Amino acid sequence: MPFCDGVRLKTAYCKAQAEGFAFMANNVAAPNILIGLLEAYAEADSDLLVQISPGAAKFAGGGDKRAGLRSLSALVRELADPYPICVFINLDHFTAGELELIAEAMDDRLVSSIMIDASQEAFEENIRVSRTVVEKARGTGILVEAELGKIKGVEDEISSDEALYTAPDEAAEFVERTGADLLAISVGTQHGVSKGRDLELRVDLAARIRDRLTESGLNVPLVLHGTSGLLPEQVREMIGYGICKLNKDTHYQYVYGRTACEFFAAHAEGIIPPSGVEDDVANLFARGDWSPDKKVFDPRAVGKEIRAKVREIALVLIEQAGSAGKTLREQREGH
Ligand code: G3H
Ligand code: ZN
Predict the structure, then answer these.
(1) Edge to edge, what strands does the sheet with 152-155 contain?
(2) 67, 112, 140, 158: which could join 88 in a potential S-S bond, CB 3.0 to 4.6 Å?
(3) How far apart are the CA of 75 and the centre of ligand 2, in A?
């Protein structure tokens, strides 16, 4: 079974910590992104971490978040099956308003890990909510990521106008009291389209957080959100300071939009009727001489291009994370 559970994911993070690499955590908003990722990760011999956000679930379910989450999880698990790598599913930025859905995802083993994001709440409330999810996960093997600090920008249904950097002492108290398996920290990245060049990245703070946690015997993997637009050297530096998971969403959204845009611009004449021709979409141009070209308007035509481009960019990002060639496949096959 290529879909792998939280126990295997924990092993993957331990390996990453021991060997100094990380995983890109890839948000999937459309099936063509998922297929491009599967192809890239299998080619690179890297395990794959796929993320489903509440917004992506709602969209996939035509407004029904629960149906969308169940179907996206099933899609990932089914499509992953023939690939020779471990594929993990993480719920991304689920909030206190979604505890029922989180519980269902755990009970039905739809995921390998869950991020509970109560970072908009005050410290004590963030601890209380995060701890509730950790307690619910007990005995399931599903890992829980919690966040401390605020990341500037908009990600799906979460937005913040300002950054609130994570304080090292609070981070230790937070992990101790919540029992979270992973900690998402705020050290200057931003959700959305950001320019690594202009970010005030506090690598020193990431290092202090990692040291403070280690001092307390809390060697949890650290997570960086909002990594689209980071420069390769910034990614490398962050991995050197204990970051094991780098969340990417916007970058794939851009690749998707850009590829579709170029494809449709190049093939517009096969899709849009020339001037003077009646725009008779309702009858599929059945009355006139002009016909659209099925070879270019079939969604599979642009879909193939999107898959290929996502694959190409994902291969670059896998190299940045250093996860190529690190699959736990052997262990998976041994079970
Ligand atoms: O949780 C997902 C991310 O933090 C993605 O951030 O959209 O800036 O890549 P991004
Ligand atoms: Zn995020």
Answers:
(1) 158-160, 152-155, 190-191
(2) 112
(3) 22
**Cα distance from N-terminal residue to C-terminal residue, the chain:** 9
- CA of 25 relative to ligand 1 center, distance in Å: 9
pLDDT tens sequence across 141-194: 999 999 999 888 877 777 777 779 999 999 999 999 999 999 999 999 999 999
Amino acid of residue 151 = I
Closest CA to 258 of 195, 193, 207, 323: 193
Number of neighbours of residue 275 by Cβ within 10 angstroms: 6
Strand extents, DSSP E, 197-308: 222-224, 243-248
Residues 277 and 288: their CA atoms lie apart, in Å, by 8
Give yes or no for residue 215 having a pLDDT over 50.
yes
Cβ-based neighbour number of residue 226 at 10 Å: 26
Using alpha carbons, select from 302, 262, 30, 36 the residue that is nearest to residue 294.
Answer: 302
Distance of CA 193 to the CA centre of its chain: 15
In this structure, which residue's CA is closest to atom 10 in ligand 1? 226
Verify whether residue 92 is a known catalytic residue. yes
Tens-place pLDDT, residues 14-32: 999 999 999 999 999 899 9
pLDDT of 331: 59
- Residue whose token pair is 């998976």: 332
Q: How far apart are CA 50 and CA 248, in angstroms?
A: 10
Are 189 and 166 within 8 A, CB to CB? no
Verify whether ligand 1 is closer than 6 Å to residue 156 (CB atom): no
User: Which pair of tokens denotes residue 226?
Assistant: 């909002």
Nearest-ligand number for the alpha carbon of 29: 1
- Each residue of 76-124: pLDDT tens digit? 999 999 999 999 999 999 999 999 999 999 999 999 999 999 999 999 9
Average pLDDT of the segment spanning 289-308: 98
Q: Which of 248, 252, 255 for a ligand 1 pocket mutation test, highest count of atoms within 8 Å of Cβ?
A: 248
